[in-house]
Protein 1
Amino acid sequence: MSRFPRWWFWAAVLVPALITVVGLTLQAGSIERQVQAEAHKVLPGAELVVSGRDVVVSGIPVEQITATESRLEAATGVRSVSVVDPELTSMSMVFRTGEVVVTGTTEQQSWREQFIRKLTQHTHGRALVDETKTQRGTDFPIKTKAAEALVALITQQPEDMTVTIEARKVTIAGVVPDDNRRKAIVALMKRLFGDTTVVDQTKTKE
C-alpha cells in the first residue's frame, strides 16, 4: 500500500498547475488593461475593444482611418490594430441659384459640423443649406478636401447642377454654359474620384 493517499498525489500535481493558470490569467488581464489605457490616451473619444494586445476601433471618420491605425500601432503594448469601416451612405450636393443644398449622414455631430463649416468657406456667396444628419456607423463618401474643391469649382458657374456621391460612383448632372467649362468641371471630378468612378450627365447650352 502506498505511503501517501491518492488525493495527496493529485493535490501535488494540480495545485501548482492551478496557481500557474490563475497567475497567467491575472497577468493577461493586467496587460489588457494597460493596452486599453494606452489606446484611450491616443484616441480618447473612440470606441475600443481590447483583447490582449490587439485593439479593434470603431467610430472613426474615413479620412482619419490611416492616421488612426498608425497612431494606435505606435502605442505602448499594442500588437495589432483593426478598424471597423463606417458605412459610406449616399449623399448629394444640389447647386441652385443662391444656394447649395447638402444631404448625407455621418456618425458624429462634430464631424458633420466641421464638414459643413469647411464647405461654407467655398460657396462664393451662396447660402449653404445643411440637410445632413448624424447616424451611427455611417460617414460621408467624400473626403472634406475633395468636397471643398468640388463646391469651390461648381459655385463659380451660374447654372443648376447636381452631384450625387456614392461609395464607388459619383454622378454629375446639369447644364453648363459652354463646353470648356463643362470639360474643366468633369476633369476635376475625375482627378478627385478617378476616371471610372465619375458618371458625366452634364450638357452645354451650345
Protein 2
Amino acid sequence: MKKNLIALVLLFAMSFGLKAQSITTDEEWGKLIGFLSAEQWDGANSLSLQFLKRIPDANKDGNEAAVLRYMYIYSEAGLMNEQKVTKAEAQKKVSAHVGHRVVLASHPITSKEGFNSIQLVNDKTDTLMVSAANRKATQIFSFEYILPKKAFPLDEFKSNEGKVYEVIGRIKSINVEGNMFPRFKIFIDEAEISPREQ
C-alpha cells in the first residue's frame, strides 16, 4: 500500500497540535507541504531549513523541530538523488542533526519487504526498518533503522499489520551510502512507536 509520506507527516504533526504554538504561519506551512507533495526538493529544503532556524534553542528538540528536521533530511535526500548536491555536501548538511529528535513519516506495519512501510529486521522487533522512497518508489531516500525504547512484542506487530504507526526518536547516526543510488542510512534510537490516531 503506497502512502503519501508527506501527508502522513503532516497528519502526525497536526496530531501534536503544532499550529497552536507554531513558528510558521498557516500560509508558510501550506507552502512547505505543497513543495513536499509536489516533490520539489529545492523549495522544500530551503523552507524547512529556514523554519528550523527560527526555532528557539530551548525548543530545538520539540515536536515542531522534530517534524521539520525529518522534512529537511527527506528533501536533502531528494536533492542528492537528483544530483543537485554531492554525497559529501549532503553528509555535511545533515550531520548537525545527529543527537536530535526526529518524527518520521507515519507508515503501515508490514511483514513483507517494500517501500514506505515499517518492517522487521531479521524477523525480530528489537530493530525495525523503513525504506523511505518517493511516491512512485523510483528513488530511495533513506534506510531508517528504528531502535525502540520499549520492546515491541512480535505478536502485537503481526496482529497490527496494515495499521499506520507513528515513530518519534533520536537520530543516533546518519551517513550517506550507495554510489549509483545515493541515500541516507539513519539509525534512530530511543524510538517511541504508537498507532496513529484516526
Protein 3
Amino acid sequence: MGGSYVGSMIKMFLGPHGRYLSNLYLQNQLLINSFVIGVVLIKKTIDYRSDKSS
C-alpha cells in the first residue's frame, strides 16, 4: 500500500512526467546528491569568506 501512495503523490505533484523524473533521480541519485552538496558547500564557503573580509 505504501508504494501506491508514494506513486500517487509523485503523479499528483509532478504531473505526467513524474514517473520519468523519479526513475531518473533513482538511477542517478549519487551524482545528483553529490552535485547538490557541492553547490551548497561552495555557496557557504563564499558567504563565509565575504563575511570574514568585511
